[in-house]
Amino acid sequence: MIRVRKAERPDARLIRQMILEMAEHEHLPVFATEERLAKDGFGVAPKFHVLIAEVDNAAAGYALFFDCYSSFQGPGIFLEDLFVRNEFRGKGVGQALLSRIAASVVELAYFGIMFNVLDWNQSALQFFESAGAALSDRKTFCLAGPALHGIANCESVKANPAPHATGDPDQRTVSLGGQNARN
C-alpha cells in the first residue's frame, strides 16, 4: 500500500538524499544542503512543500512543489520535482504523488500544475502524457550564475529609490535609459 504524507522538518535529510538520487539519474549537480532545505521548506515562511510517498514504511519517492501565479490564469502549482526511487517505479508511486497534488489544486480552485521535463527523459514524458498533461509551446529560460550577476550589475538598468517611496524595497523607480522611466 502506498501512503503519501506531508514532509516535516526532520525529513530534510531524506529529501536531500532523494534529490541526490534524482540528480544522479538526471546528471545534474546539487547545491541545496540539508540545512537550506530545512530552512526554506520548514521555516516561518516556507518557500516550497514536499510530499513523501512510502511503501511498507520505506521512502519510495517525493514531490517538491510551490505556488505560482499566471497573469492570465491566476494561481497554480509549480511541480519542481516528482521522483520515484528505482525499486518502486511502475508501482503507482508517481501516480499517487501527482494525484495528491492534483486533488489540492482542484480543492483550491487553482488553474493547474506547471512543470518541466528534460527532453531526453522518455519515461517521465510518457508518465505525464498518460496523466493527460499537454506540452506547452513555451520555452523555459534560466538566468543564473555570471549572467544573473551581470544583468544585476548592468549600468543601463538601475533601480533607484523613488522620491516618494515609503521605504518598501518593491516600490522604486527603474531607469532603462530614460529619465526616471516608471515601470
| CATH topology tier name of the largest domain | Aminopeptidase
Unreliable parts: 162-166, 169-183
- SS strand fraction: 25-35%
Count helical runs. Answer: 5
**Backbone shape:** globular
Return the structural class.
alpha+beta
The CATH superfamily of the largest domain turns out to be Gcn5-related N-acetyltransferase (GNAT)
Order of strands, main sheet, comes to: 1-2-3-4-5
Could you tell me how far the N terminus lies from the C terminus, measured between alpha carbons in angstroms? 53 Å
In short:
With 183 residues, this protein is α+β, with helices and mostly antiparallel strands.
How does this model look, in words?
The protein has 183 residues and is an alpha+beta fold. The protein has two domains: 2-130, Gcn5-related N-acetyltransferase (GNAT) (Aminopeptidase); 145-175, no CATH class. The protein has five helices and seven strands, in the order E-H-H-E-E-E-H-E-H-H-E-E. The strands form two sheets. It has a five-stranded mixed β-sheet with strand order 1-2-3-4-5, sandwiched between helices. Strand 2 and strand 3 (58-70) form a beta hairpin. Helix 1 (12-26) crosses helix 2.
